[in-house]
Amino acid sequence: MNLQVLDYSIYLEPLYLLIGFAVFDIIIFIIAIILMCKLRGLKNRYNIFMKGEDAKSLEKIILEKLDEIETLKVSDRKNKEDILKINETLLLTFKKVGIIKYDAFNEMGGKLSFAVALLNKKNDGFIINAMHSREGCYTYIKEIINGQSYIILGDEERQALDEAIGKV
């Protein structure tokens, strides 16, 4: 058998080639028109943005805004420092309170005596005990450190301390 090599050559007629290039040119032309319209819109927005005496007016506005930002940074830094000072002060303030009213001497009939415990966050503070009687009022104060007293506490004072600490 004799094998023949088939020669396939692509032959385009010039008319088809010319029509193809014309369609390609029309597509490119349409794309160019769309891009010019978008460019015109962008130029309009740019002109509106730059509107003013000159471009320096925009520069002036930007510099003013940068100054405002710097002022805000300084103010923010100062506020943070103030907040830290306030938080440190709050650690020392008396936040925990315990109050117990009682009748110190049974002859009075009313609960006119009291024990007040005032503590900070670390359970440091004091207890004031005011005992009322017919002869007068006697007031005592006892120091509290870490929720403990180095002086013996009475029952009412212990109750006021426990209430302030939150054990009750």
TrEMBL record:
One Pfam family per UniProt: DUF4446
Superkingdom of source: Bacteria
Record keyword Transmembrane helix present: yes
Keywords recorded for this protein, A-Z: Membrane, Transmembrane, Transmembrane helix
Protein name: DUF4446 family protein
Organism encoding this protein: Lachnotalea glycerini
Transmembrane regions: 15-37
